[in-house]
Amino acid sequence: MKILVLNCGSSSIKFQMFDMTDQTVLSKGVVEKIGLNGSFLKLVKQNGDEVIFEGEILDHKIGIEYVLGVLSSKKHGCVANLNEISAVGHRVVHGGEKFNSSVLITDEVVAKMEECIDLAPLHNPPNLKGIEAIKEILPNMIQVGVFDTAFHQTMPKYAYMYGIPYSLYQKYGIRRYGFHGTSHRYVSRKACSLLGIDYNSSKIITCHLGNGASIAAIKNGVSVDTSMGFTPVEGLLMGTRAGDLDIGVVTYLMEKEKLGVETASTLFNKHSGMLGLTGISSDFRDLRKSVAEDNNELSKMAFEMYFYRVKKYIGAYTAAMNGCDVLVFTGGIGENDVMCRQGICSEMEWLGFDLDNELNSTIRAEEALLSKPTSKVKIMVIPTNEELMIAEDTLSFLQ
Ligand code: AMP
């Protein structure tokens, strides 16, 4: 059974075709620069060969036509014809309070998704364009929406409310939603299945540390707290996002620097975090290099801040769940950056987190248990796979 997973961004479409009989990826790729000069489709075949197709890809519908054309082409395709595709699963960023799980897409569901646009004006419209395009090109195709926010809809009210007038929650839906839900769900489940423990009676903390970063507390199979909030800017220090910040700083700077709303948003979302602190890069690899080669003091400070904040959240979530059985690292940084995992887990033994530093130093981008056998909490690396989670959710509607 073949399932196509689409992740439509403002100017890009990422795609992966799965054969769900054995969960293999038959083909994957990305359409980039939609509506811009130099648009192209990059295909990565199952054998690893890459092919680039240049073309005038003016909008998402044309982009998806390209994708379907390439996937079913004689020379480069992985299906003989489009009828072989059983369903399409879409990543959708924001489901607000309307969606607490993945859904079969109908006209009614699309109308509800449109009502969530206000909450994610940059992300939800391209997600909807992808759904609309498939409906136009393949009108009978089964489509499923998988939301970044849905997994965190189980948070208790005391965890998701902000201390602002309740009327603003009622009027605008201002509350904490959380993101990266598909990743937190995937790695927490995978950790339990690898450890052979019951997901529904475990306490798990998952650290999704990528360019965007969030941490989640998962108790008895449901998310009870997460660090991102109304938008993805809250919580951990990130590549370019500030994370937790006294809102007094926002109003102070808006006044002092005469910042408009958009400039302020750009400052805290795109020019802050590791990039803003160091002035060098948002990428951990560049920052590691700046320490190794130049002993850069700002990079060292930024790393310390980064570790400290993740550590504080781990402590908070251990308290929130009255314990922790498993700590999982994922995302580009969590999966690869040995020193980051070591920095976060140092001096956490009292709480039960005892990392095997030697073992940790050998693990990159593979499923592994990194804690000492005596550690109360199991510490793991699980490479995330949001696309597979979306494909699995999509498959569940076919079954
Ligand atoms: P993601 O958003 O999950 O794709 O993660 C991207 C980030 O992961 C990059 O910006 C890097 O900071 C980090 N990253 C990726 N590979 C490595 C690596 N080998 N070592 C350290 N950091 C890495």
Can you put this structure into words, describing what you see?
The protein has 399 residues and is α/β, with parallel strands linked by helices. The chain has 2 domains: 2-147, Nucleotidyltransferase, domain 5 (2-Layer Sandwich); 196-386, Nucleotidyltransferase, domain 5 (2-Layer Sandwich), CATH 3.30.420.40. It is built from 15 helices and 14 strands. It has helices at residues 60-71, 107-115, 124-137, 157-160, 166-172, 181-195, 247-256, 261-270, 273-278, 284-294, 297-321, 331-336, 338-345, 357-360, 386-398; strands spanning 2-8, 13-19, 24-32, 40-45, 50-54, 85-92, 103-104, 142-147, 203-209, 213-219, 222-226, 326-330, 368-369, 378-381. Helix 1 crosses helix 3 (124-137) and helix 11 (297-321) crosses helix 13. The structure holds adenosine monophosphate. Adenosine monophosphate (AMP) binds next to helix 10 and helix 12.
What's the topology here?
Elements: E1 2-8, E2 13-19, E3 24-32, E4 40-45, E5 50-54, H1 60-71, E6 85-92, E7 103-104, H2 107-115, H3 124-137, E8 142-147, H4 157-160, H5 166-172, H6 181-195, E9 203-209, E10 213-219, E11 222-226, H7 247-256, H8 261-270, H9 273-278, H10 284-294, H11 297-321, E12 326-330, H12 331-336, H13 338-345, H14 357-360, E13 368-369, E14 378-381, H15 386-398
Parallel strand pairs: 1-6, 6-8, 9-12, 12-14
Antiparallel strand pairs: 1-2, 2-3, 3-4, 4-5, 7-8, 9-10, 10-11, 13-14
